[in-house]
Amino acid sequence: MLRRRMDPLGRAALEALLALAPQAGDPLVFASRWGELSRTEQLLDALAQAEPLSPTQFGLSVHNAVGALYSIARAERGNYLAVAAGANSVEAGFIEALGLLADGAERAIVVAYDGPPPPRCAAALAAGRAEPLSGDAAGVHAFACELVRGNAADLALTAGATPQAQATETALPDALDVLRFLVASDASHLVRGEPGGRGWRWERGHV
Questions:
Q1: Which domains does the chain have, with CATH numbers?
Q2: How far apart are CA 184 and CA 15, in angstroms?
Q3: Mean pLDDT of the chain
């Protein structure tokens, strides 16, 4: 029943999470720029047509819906949270996870997931960096990353100005841009952000 309620975005996020075989009580951070925005669009359409709103659809439209479904499916009462920070959503997720480790957690898992916003929303969001992948399920992407206390020092994440010459040009969505850096063996750092503006610098040691 829960599987039928989920759309491709939620299924992708939980598939990535379950592949890590999280332990009971592991704190989870769900990071998504757009979340279930298509469901919100459907609710707005219903309002515009003076139709009754679906409580289920509303419950699944909120930003922590994926985490809530995971909690229900696994009877998991541990710590989970959802973050959204525009183009910085992936970084916000990792900052939260590193904070959980600093607060005493042994492990923390970041689930970064997104997809292209609905076509009608995309035009209104043109001022932001829209996800380059297009289509419905074809544009959905997700990954999960486990951070372990003691190894967190291998990952450094710093906010600051983005020098023009250091900004990394990429055609990848935010989450996949970070994932490529995390799994690549030929890059010691990644600079994300608008050239000449504010951004983030990822660095790693001997992971």
A1: 2-152 (3.40.47.10)
A2: 22
A3: 82
Nearest to 191 by CA among 171, 172, 163: 163
pLDDT in tens, 116-136: 777 777 766 655 454 554 444
Q: Tokens in use for 21?
A: 């075989």
> Distance between CA 134 and CA 142 in Å, rounded?
15
Is a pLDDT exceeding 50 seen at residue 100?
A: yes
- CA torsion 190-194-197-200 (nearest 10°) is -30
Instruction: Say which residue, 184 or 33, is predicted with more confidence.
Output: 33
- Whether 138 has a pLDDT exceeding 80, the answer reads no
Helices (H) and strands (E) in the chain, counts: 8, 7
Q: Are 130 and 35 in contact (CB under 8 A)?
A: no
Q: Residues 189, 203: contact at Cβ < 8 Å? A: yes
Q: Does position 182 have pLDDT exceeding 50, yes or no? A: yes
Phi, psi of 6 (to 5 degrees): -85, 145
The H-or-E segment that residue 178 falls in is helix 174-183
Kindly compute the dihedral angle of the four CA atoms of residues 150, 154, 159, 162, in this order, to the nearest 10 degrees: 180
